[in-house]
Amino acid sequence: MPTHQDLSDAGPGGMPKRAALSAAGPGSMPKGARGSVESAATAAWARQAPTHPQPPLNAPYVLEGATVVLPTGPVQNGRVIIDGTQITTTAPENAPTIDVRNHWLLPGFVDIHNHGGGGASFTSGTVEDVLKGIHTHRTHGTTTLVASTVTGDMDGLVQRAGLLSELAEQGDVAGIHFEGPFISPCRKGAHSEELLRDPDPADVRRLIDAARGRAAMVTLATELPGGLDSVRLLAEHGVIAAIGHTDATYEQTVQAIDAGATVATHLFNAMPPLGHREPGPIAALLEDERITVELINDGTHLHPASLQLAFRHAGADRVAFITDAMDAAGFGDGRYWLGPLEAEVADGVARLVESGTIAGSTLTLDRAFKRAVTLDHLPVKDVVAALSANPAKLLGMYDRVGSLEPGKDADLVLLDADFDVKGVMRKGEWVVDPQLN
């Protein structure tokens, strides 16, 4: 095994620090760059965020001595070289070095299904709220995030798409995921049944247009009227069609995959269970190599055996860990709103007040990683793929994020030997300052 792997901003005493919103957050953007999205409240909140001096962009530095997780697996005593916002291959002999021995270095996590955090909702919050939620997840290692909405009336979703698309254009989120309203009332989960509707391609197209090229994914029950035509429409426009909140049969699910669906929204949840006479959607989604399966590894949504089944049958290259997080993630127990529905979070588990249905999660991806490695005993290489590479590939972003390779964004997570977060970097700037004691 090699002892050094050149991959990778300043060294001891001069290392770059930043505990702000993001690498391109409102505190560091040129005046006027946020345009109509910037609100007075947002600007005020951003000004309160602590800032730290940044090193010159032409001053490479080295993170050295950690176990670095590459696409090929962990490399002991590795080194990551960072030059400005990117990972690079070489550094001058006198480049500053940060000793990160007894730590792990992973690529930044990529979450393709996330509804909020830090007490803030991506569906109904202000710009300030959305940025707060994004920052909350960044402190837990998620450096690339798709903002998910829950079911609402079409006019409201169109308006929300406009706001989120501007944040996507400015690099705060990687796109928009519409979960609902095109889902089955039989498998509605924590979505308002009164606001559900069939996936009419005209309505789907309206959301795509409102997102101005920033729609990343739409979850829909493809067995409903208009479902297959909507899948074809999404595929034609380069938007991921995800099968979820569905009551489809095995045969109907196969039809949807053939029409262009490529993702299973939180596999096992909000769909018929696997049966020996009626295998339903789970069997079709697991067996087809064209499908990436989302999994919520929080210990509540899935039994460990179901998680193992998905990994073994689909394979590690077809799994994407997600949070499906709601407002309480990184915030705490209490009462919250999911669209028009009230949820109560107790002991970290969110349930609708009225029905007791599980209502998203309070998960962060660092916890999903730790659980997968320490409790589920999955190989680190496979878990990192599920958290970073696989979702990045789905989004068409693997040339920039998803692995610690030269030329990619300097997005990384520093963990200690117990797999707890001790530093987070996004585009070469520390979101969480390294804690190396």
UniProtKB/TrEMBL annotation:
<dbReference type="GO" id="GO:0008448">
    <property type="term" value="F:N-acetylglucosamine-6-phosphate deacetylase activity"/>
</dbReference>
<feature type="binding site">
    <location>
        <position position="190"/>
    </location>
    <ligand>
        <name>substrate</name>
    </ligand>
</feature>
<dbReference type="GO" id="GO:0006046">
    <property type="term" value="P:N-acetylglucosamine catabolic process"/>
</dbReference>
<protein>
    <recommendedName>
        <fullName>N-acetylglucosamine-6-phosphate deacetylase</fullName>
        <ecNumber>3.5.1.25</ecNumber>
    </recommendedName>
</protein>
<feature type="binding site">
    <location>
        <position position="301"/>
    </location>
    <ligand>
        <name>substrate</name>
    </ligand>
</feature>
<feature type="binding site">
    <location>
        <position position="245"/>
    </location>
    <ligand>
        <name>Zn(2+)</name>
    </ligand>
</feature>
<feature type="domain" description="Amidohydrolase-related">
    <location>
        <begin position="105"/>
        <end position="431"/>
    </location>
</feature>
<dbReference type="InterPro" id="IPR006680">
    <property type="entry name" value="Amidohydro-rel"/>
</dbReference>
<feature type="binding site">
    <location>
        <position position="179"/>
    </location>
    <ligand>
        <name>Zn(2+)</name>
    </ligand>
</feature>
<dbReference type="Pfam" id="PF01979">
    <property type="entry name" value="Amidohydro_1"/>
</dbReference>
<dbReference type="InterPro" id="IPR011059">
    <property type="entry name" value="Metal-dep_hydrolase_composite"/>
</dbReference>
<dbReference type="GO" id="GO:0046872">
    <property type="term" value="F:metal ion binding"/>
</dbReference>
<dbReference type="InterPro" id="IPR032466">
    <property type="entry name" value="Metal_Hydrolase"/>
</dbReference>
<feature type="active site" description="Proton donor/acceptor">
    <location>
        <position position="324"/>
    </location>
</feature>
<comment type="similarity">
    <text>Belongs to the metallo-dependent hydrolases superfamily. NagA family.</text>
</comment>
<keyword id="KW-0119">Carbohydrate metabolism</keyword>
<dbReference type="InterPro" id="IPR003764">
    <property type="entry name" value="GlcNAc_6-P_deAcase"/>
</dbReference>
<feature type="binding site">
    <location>
        <position position="277"/>
    </location>
    <ligand>
        <name>substrate</name>
    </ligand>
</feature>
<feature type="compositionally biased region" description="Low complexity">
    <location>
        <begin position="40"/>
        <end position="49"/>
    </location>
</feature>
<keyword id="KW-0378">Hydrolase</keyword>
<feature type="binding site">
    <location>
        <position position="266"/>
    </location>
    <ligand>
        <name>Zn(2+)</name>
    </ligand>
</feature>
<comment type="pathway">
    <text>Amino-sugar metabolism; N-acetylneuraminate degradation; D-fructose 6-phosphate from N-acetylneuraminate: step 4/5.</text>
</comment>
<keyword id="KW-0479">Metal-binding</keyword>
<feature type="binding site">
    <location>
        <begin position="358"/>
        <end position="360"/>
    </location>
    <ligand>
        <name>substrate</name>
    </ligand>
</feature>
<feature type="binding site">
    <location>
        <begin position="269"/>
        <end position="270"/>
    </location>
    <ligand>
        <name>substrate</name>
    </ligand>
</feature>
<feature type="region of interest" description="Disordered">
    <location>
        <begin position="1"/>
        <end position="58"/>
    </location>
</feature>
